[in-house]
Amino acid sequence: MKNSLNRFIPDNMKAYDGLNQIFKQKNRKLVPEILTKNENKQVNSLRILFDLIPITDGMTLSFHHHLRNGDGIINMVLNEIKTRNLKNMTLAPSAIFPIHEPMCELIKNKSITQIFTNYINGPVSQTIGDGYLEKLVIMDTHGGRARAIESGELFIDVAFIGVPCADIYGNGNGLEGPSACGTLGYAIADMKYAKHKVVITDYLTSNIAPIEIESKYIDYVIKVNAIGKSEGIVSGTTRPTKDPVQLKIARDTIKLIKELGYIKKDMSFQTGAGGTSLAVAQMLINRMIENKIKGSFASGGITGYLVEMHEYGLFKRLYDVQCFDHEAIASLKRNANHYAMSASKYANPFEENPIVNDLDVVILGATEIDSDFNVNVTTDSNGLIIGGSGGHSDTAFGAKLTIITTNLVKSRTSIVKDYVTTITTPGETVDCLVTERGIAINPKRTDLIKKLSNSKLNILTIDQLLLKAHDLIGIPKEIEFNQKVIGVVRYRDGSIIDSIYKLRGDQK
Amino acid sequence: MRRSLLFIPANSPAMLQNADVFAADAVIFDLEDAVALSEKDAALNLLDQFLNKFELKGIEKIVRINQLDSPFSITDLKLIANKRIDTIMLPKASYRYTLNLAKMLDKIEKHNHMTKSINILPIIESSKSVIEINKIASAPRVNGLLLGGEDLATDLEVERTETGHEIFLSRAMLILAAKANKIDAIDTPYTDMKNEEGLKKDSKFSKGLGMNARVCIHPNQIDAINEIFSPNQNEIDHAQKIINAYQDSIKTGKGAFSVDGKMIDKPIIERAQKVLEKAEQWNLL
Predict the structure, then answer these.
(1) Given 3.20.20.80, 3.40.1080.10, 3.40.1110.10, 3.40.50.300, which CATH number is that of A244-480?
(2) How distant is the Cα of B220 from the closest Cα of chain A, in angstroms?
(3) pTM, entire model
(4) What is the least distance, in Å, from the CA of A472 to any CA of chain B?
């Protein structure tokens, strides 16, 4: 069947039907939180834990991705699954990175047959794209994953929570220890609602403050030598782009935000950790200082630049669901108004007042964007999964002004398309597109178009941008996709916004 | 009228593709110093294909050919000097080379039945060319002079410095020759690409001497150069005030008039007209 965006989705699933339908869904469904009854929680090894619970065929195991591409937890668990030759397992990691390559073998031999996640990057994408995963891969948003867990839609048998700093009772945080990663916001729903909760740490201490992972929920604590590789967990300070094209995009983005009146007292702001996003943040610092503007908060994944803005007094508060660098971790320890938040508080669509709904401006990227402003950040133009929504759809929905920044042409490919390969974020939640060759405003935002009627910015329609791209690189030949659905993109309310298809045999 | 002219190596497809993305008033496709000897043919062919495919509306297209006494310059001109471009930049210019180039362009344009006339932008980068600068400025087709500070310093046997005192006289002579012939005075590039403050400081100094424009060796230099070589809002407002008062004086038949307590005479009116002309061209009104 087709959903309201004219995308084919599997027949037995709930179809995305536009934003109006979402607003009607007022009742938040919450299953009861599951508290522990265990008193003696320390377990010596994963092997013993698997016997103790016991973990058997067909169970669902979850993980958070705060250790990113340094994560060692998933691979430890995969090793145990492999040793025991468990079958028909479902994994629910909030993201999958290249370091999780051992998952490929277990997908191929049917040990793992279903995956729920928000983001996939690395070899697991190819294995899924080749059709080895028996059931569909479900690609959620950060807020949508929390919603799915708390509503019982995604039932988790065992949550493995990597905690960089924990005590023997299971209290913990991500601020100290050799694998410090900052906040643990993506693990909170798992901690509350999974049937069994396991803290895995490489740093046991009795001094946990503040407590983010709460012992009342935790059943088991395992101490291991290392939960991750520090070099893959957080980066050093990421720097703004020096690429002149991306700098131009960043400059035009700041001009656009200013002309639309959003550089103002108490503004709230979110951007990513990419080079262009950081350049926007850096330029925003200058504009805010020049105009003596003090904002209310910055949110999302926090970088050193946002910390700098906070400490300079440009934003009163930081709401942090994920620390991107060492500066952010250090700030979380020393700044009273730098708050850790859960994925639910950040972006759950049925949370009473999620942070994303208070955002004025969000700057987001795109792998593709189509003439209806639908954005793809899930697959490349061949259909291979190269990412996922993360907080993309959540913030685009919540923010008053959603700006996509991207080069119009990358590697001889137009980013603006007639139709995106996969819809991650619906165009009705996207307001502006800023490229090096012009700015397009969503025609539905007549208020913005009116405000920019006398602008000296290079305002074009998105179709004009598409024509410019065609002038540069020609009209691309249409790609024929395999018709077998191997996954779906699930919008934040649980409806299906698009399908993901098996790769053609020659796409390796 | 120019403020910023961006150098783009003609052998870089990625940079050619973005030639018209930035806010430079002109792009200079470089076939000379930016291109290694072994890549001269490939660069020329690439530029030829690029110019065939892309029109680059609203931006002056300049090609820096190889030195006129090199084995490449004739091939460069035969392939590139046609209606697709606006200006030839002549490296190591002398009066004789400038005249020769003008004659070659006469022949090419006649042969190709061109209605468009290609301009010449000589680079003043030797002591000899500084000495004969007024003659170069007055040569046919020349509509600007560019100072080549690095080569000039080599010729003068001096080091380039941050203050630029070693090229001060040459800058001044270039400006005088340009103004005397009513053409653009274009300053040497600022080569420390990471020093934005230095670029701004030196460009303000250069504008204060009388330079109209500056070449950019990196796109990130364009915004600062455009800002400095454009009239600022106070200048535009003041010029508008003078022109309004001037027009009132014509209507009312008054001869002399004043603005903000200062008497306004013909040179001030002409300067105000020039400011407004620039502001209009660069979309600053």
Answers:
(1) 3.40.1080.10
(2) 6
(3) 0.91
(4) 8
